[in-house]
Amino acid sequence: MIFVVPRLKTPAVCEECVSAILRDSVLTSLKNRSSVGFLLGLPVDFDSIFINSSECVDKLYAGLPDVRVPLNVFSSWGGLSCHVKLTSAPGTVIRLTVNSMDIEPSDCIYDALTVYDALLPMRAKTLHRLCEAVRVPVSLVSTSNVMLLSFRLTQGNKSFRGFFQAVPEAECLSVIEIPAAPSEAGEMTSPFYPSLLPPLCSCTWRLQTHSTSLGVALKFQNYILSPKDLTPCEHGWWKVNEIIYCGRYVSHVTVFRVPERSVEVVFRCSSRSSELPFSATYSGFNISQREHNAAPR
Question: Which ranges does the record mark as transmembrane (predicted)?
């Protein structure tokens, strides 16, 4: 942890000066809930000071791929502050599945689970936050083989039930031959589907129809592609046959058509935290019936 020290005339720093710098930084962080310093170039939240003095600090390890490691946390009437460090074997990432979480909704002021893509609670490494009860299982994936769970449970009977597992890192690449049938031929999904998308991920789909008269149509359930402008892509970066698009989430079905027989679709995650997954069905369409440039509908 690094603190900014005023420029001094000598390299020696008195003990009282260091104490004053640390005290002022911590007091400011308590007031503003801001970072108290930096680690590996990233701001460290005030909570990280207490990570090893909380009511529970546990370490769990997943050594074998796809083997579920149970993870259950219960609080008493006195409340609970708990940090759980998850690690997995090198060459894997961690998938956390939350089966249920019984807390009172409070916009994360009282009860909350914060998941970090690191072993310290650094705000810049926040993957996801749960601020209300979970009734339907949800899962999320780290970008490396470490993850930190930070529980804050206030008075009352609160509980968390779930598990985590190591998932082998693998290249996401699919080569797809679209059959001649006019019906929807198959489905393409986001990396680690149905888990939430991690901040760093990518996938490539190479699709081809059986005839030069057929193009490729992608029918998204909750997503739309738009040509990229000068603003960054916040919810997914796409390249379709060398043309760049940005993705965003919508509440309706959309269809993206490319009037070419062979199509290469490249997707890259671009959010700072976990995002909703997406899915699309692919099929062929008659280019002569819809003669236009590739564009979403």
Answer: none
